[in-house]
Specification:
- The complex is a heterodimer.
- Chain A is mainly alpha-helical.
- Chain A contains one helix and no strands.
- Helices cover 90% and strands 0% of the residues of chain A.
- The N and C termini of chain A lie far apart (47 Å).
- The model of chain A has no long low-confidence stretch (mean pLDDT 94).
- Chain B has a two-stranded antiparallel sheet. In chain B, strands 3-4 form a two-stranded antiparallel ribbon.
- The model of chain B has no long low-confidence stretch (mean pLDDT 94).
- The chains are: A mainly alpha, B mainly alpha.
Chain lengths: 31, 581
């Protein structure tokens, strides 16, 4: 079970970094 | 309500608002790197920490790097708290020999404390060792609060600076917040609490003789009781100041060892709103126009006082169902009257309602009464305060950046209405800022509604609800409103310490924290690059009473449109049912 919850924490962090990338791209694309 | 209750409410606001300016000014000095009274002690400590961690205090960060540092630091904190709970049975400072925390509960607690939510599915005194409480919970109480304040300060810099690329240094903001602001205040409050009788010891739980021996359910005479103690005062001080809220004991600040006297109650209530309110003034100081801070503080205070009045009125009016049970709800010199179910006699109705409003306005989540026992509309108040997005003072830092998202929306809508390009603090508010502000407002709404829908649809979610009907729905809605806004208080009546709720609420708390902080930092990154636009006749002044009213309108309309349907299924229908009786 430990590996599932640690994995979940890493997955959510990765998704959040994806949000950073998305915001960054939006910032460059938005006139 | 008697005159003593009125006086306590007035005293609370007078002291709170009197402290806003001096503390707000002090924090502005701290964040601007100016000299402060604490420099002789704090500066050497700060420098030592930089040397120890290899931080270059002069280095500036762009918003992406700032966000990365924030995310990595918080992920490491989460993993550390998780590991500590799982290994506590092998570690020192565990005089009760408590076993390892089960994985789903450890996950929920680790996310909860690292995100400044402090939702507690566990009972502190029967689950966590002293080491876990101190190294896990208390440390996260400091650094999660400092993380929120750092993000808010980065956003302020984004507004203040122009034609630039950087918004500060996360490690410096985190360190300065902890060393100059949180630590000194926490020491002060902890000492006051100890003076009032809040426990602070490493000793084991005490077995004491009962004053009135009794018999238990099996008919056996019981003459002794185990009293849980521990290093509570130091944790309680920061849990209130950092708007964390996680109790050392299961019943939180209703426990006489956490909150023994009316004075400890006043100090703890002041600690809840002190930093969020003062930070708004800090904002005004840092942008060079304190009227901006006062305008935001006025909007927050008007909404807070209005909702608090509803809660006090409802609770003081009493429960019509109690009348048929011949329960005395009349107010006398020795009886506060009203609905006293789930409330401590030493606090009464006014202080219980005030605490409930303050703790949910400020994303704190500690309680001194059981919100589940409030009247339906009294319980609606904490629920709605959370659902507004924890921006009425709000969490330390997160409340300010959440409120600034609403300011951006208010300015943008006002600009559309008069056909001018919206501006705020000399910066043009354009499509990107609106997208980010919308994300910040919509993410918690989506999390509350989706989480509640999942829980009431799934058998595992429904099985944990003790009360049938509208009240049970309110309990689930409250849990997800609390987790989705990083509050942490519970309505009770929901058996949430199971894999379903622990996992789902953990995911909710994580997204509620970082999927708001990231857009806030992105707004900072966007605004910092912009040129300053000179004020013209077409600029909407944002410090006037008109703007305050407009901002309140935007906040309430968004909150009402999003949550009145859900509230109608819970507290509103319960209120109407009670009236029907």
């Amino acid at each position: 079970m430990d590996i599932i919850y640690v994995g979940l924490a890493l997955l959510l962090s990765l998704a959040t970094w994806g949000l950073v990338e998305l915001c960054s791209r939006l910032m460059e694309e938005t006139p | 309500m008697n005159s003593a209750s009125w006086m306590q409410l007035v005293l609370y606001f007078v002291v709170l608002l009197a402290l806003v300016k001096p503390l707000g000014t002090f924090m502005a000095h701290v964040y601007q790197g100016e000299r402060t009274l604490l420099d002789p002690i704090a500066r050497p400590m700060e420098r030592w920490l930089y040397r120890l961690s290899g931080v270059d205090a002069g280095e500036e960060m762009g918003w992406r790097r700032y966000a990365l540092a924030l995310l990595i630091f918080n992920l490491l904190g989460l993993l550390a708290v998780y590991t500590l709970q799982r290994l506590q049975c092998f570690l020192p400072l565990n005089p009760q020999g408590l076993s390892a925390v089960v994985p789903d509960s450890a996950w929920n607690t680790a996310v909860s404390f690292s995100t400044n939510t402090n939702w507690q599915a566990y009972g502190g005194e029967v689950t966590m060792s002293y080491l876990t409480q101190m190294l896990g919970m208390t440390v996260q109480n400091f650094v999660s609060a400092a993380t929120g304040m750092a993000a808010a300060v980065a956003l302020i810099r984004g507004i203040v600076r122009h034609s630039a690329k950087t918004i500060g240094n996360f490690w410096v903001d985190l360190t300065r917040t902890t060393v100059y602001i949180l630590l000194p205040l926490a020491i002060l409050v902890a000492l006051v609490l100890v003076s009032q009788g809040v426990v602070q010891t490493f000793g084991a739980y005490r077995q004491v003789p009962l004053l009135q021996p009794t018999t238990n359910a099996e008919g056996v005479q019981v003459g002794q009781q185990v009293l849980a103690v521990g290093p509570a005062a130091s944790q309680i001080a920061i849990k209130q100041l950092g708007t964390n809220g996680g109790g050392f004991f299961n019943v939180n600040a209703a426990h006489p060892f956490e909150n023994p006297t009316p004075l400890s109650n006043l100090v703890e209530m002041l600690s809840i709103l002190l930093l969020p309110a003062a930070l708004v003034y800090t904002y005004g100081k840092m942008v060079g126009d304190t009227r901006q801070g006062w305008a935001l503080l006025t909007a927050m205070t008007i909404i807070f006082v209005t909702l608090l009045s509803l809660a006090v009125w409802e609770e003081q009016s009493g429960n019509p169902a109690f009348a048929t049970m011949r329960i005395d709800q009349a107010q006398t010199t020795i009886n506060p009257g009203g609905n006293m179910e789930g409330k401590e006699v030493r606090f009464g109705v006014a202080n219980s309602a005030l605490w409930a409003a303050a703790t949910t306005a400020a994303s704190n989540g500690s309680v001194n009464s059981m919100h589940d026992s409030f009247m339906p509309l009294g319980g609606l108040v904490p629920l709605f305060l959370m659902q507004l997005g924890e921006i009425i003072y709000g969490g330390v830092g997160s409340g300010l950046y959440g409120m600034l998202a609403f300011v951006i929306v208010a300015v943008f809508v006002a600009g559309l209405m008069v056909g001018r390009t919206p501006e705020y603090m000399g910066k043009k508010i354009e499509a990107f800022e609106m997208k980010m502000a919308s994300l910040m407002i919509l993410v918690p709404i989506l999390l509350v509604t989706t989480g509640t829908a999942l829980a009431v649809s799934a058998p595992a979610g429904r099985a944990a609800v003790f009360n049938p009907g509208a009240h049970g729905f309110s309990e689930v809605l409250y849990a997800f409103s609390s987790a989705s806004n990083n509050n942490g208080s519970a309505f009770a009546g929901l058996s949430a310490n199971n894999p379903f709720y622990n996992t789902l609420l953990g995911i909710t708390m994580f997204l509620a924290r970082y999927w708001l902080a990231i857009p806030a930092l992105a707004i900072a990154g966007s605004l910092v690059r912009k040129k300053k636009v000179p004020t013209s006749a077409g600029t909407l002044p944002t410090h006037t009473p008109l703007f305050v009213v407009w901002l309140i309108g935007v906040i309430l309309i968004v909150g009402a449109l999003s949550f009145i349907p859900a509230l109608s299924l819970g507290p509103i229908v319960e209120h109407l049912t009670l009236l029907g009786h």
